[in-house]
Amino acid sequence: MTERLITHLRHVDLAVPDYDKQLEFYTTMWGLEPEIAEDGLAFLAAAGSPEQYSVRLRRAEEKRLDLIAFGAATSADVDALAERLLADGVTLVTRPERLQTPGGGYGFRFFDIDGRTIEVSADVAVRRHRKVEEGEAVPVKLSHVVMNSPNPEAAVAFYSKHLSFALSDTLMHPRMGEMMWFLRTNRFHHSVAIARGPHVSLHHASFEMRGIDEYMRGTGRLLRGGIEKVWGPGRHMAGNNTFSYFLDPHGNTVEYTTELEVLDEDSWHPHLYDFSDPMVTDQWGTANPMEEFVARKSFNDPDRGCFVAPPV
């Protein structure tokens, strides 16, 4: 594996037809803070995160995943990664340049193998953040993003070869074969995962809560608010993290989680978990069964933004 130049996940950017409804959901219900919200563009921060924002919403005629952004340690690493991708024939959307988004920085964008726009940046100003207090049921940070792919083996190979992500674990089913791959770019069990799906789309975006109590309080707030629950509450085996999945107003799945496993990368060996075993999907046995309803909701709508860079 080549040198790992990506350090962490920064933010996920969504294009949404009903911008006002989405903004209301992600602030009032989900618990993100609007750093900037004007002219149909909102940058929403997680209270405990030094990242300038964890979610960007953009008003658009059609729903899509605009981009997924990652961090690098230095501008030199940004340049090195861009050169590496160019040499490997990866399509760059932009060359490394100064960024005009909140916090500035230096970065570039490219298409992954499925046509998603990916951004990598360094030297972004640290946001003034705070310690999330006991009982506060608001996201601490963006934890991970899971993507659907009709050719997940190729997508996993792309992220492993070009971006040096490492495989943590894989989910399989006796009839369907391997179905989900968990990939890490630091010691956390996964920053991204690739799921086998019928089309390219966002599977879900996950947000870390302070602890179990805050995770359950947040889950309860959404249930009382009438937000459609897809799956949970429970605890996965792969990653050992808690999960409660809900749908935002445009049908994107978003998750509250906590206690994602931190690995010793020198000694870790990936598992192949059979998710027909109920203990694999939910160690607690408290969530609704992992069946067709959950899978169908997680497929999301086909992303029509593939190989089309977002306008901002």
TrEMBL record:
InterPro entries: Glyas_Bleomycin-R_OHBP_Dase, Glyas_Fos-R_dOase_dom, GlyoxalaseI/FosfomycinResist, VOC_core. Pfam families: Glyoxalase. Residues 8-123, 141-259 form the VOC domain. Gene3D superfamilies: 2,3-Dihydroxybiphenyl 1,2-Dioxygenase, domain 1 (3.10.180.10). PANTHER family: GLYOXALASE FAMILY PROTEIN, METALLOTHIOL TRANSFERASE FOSB. This is VOC domain-containing protein.
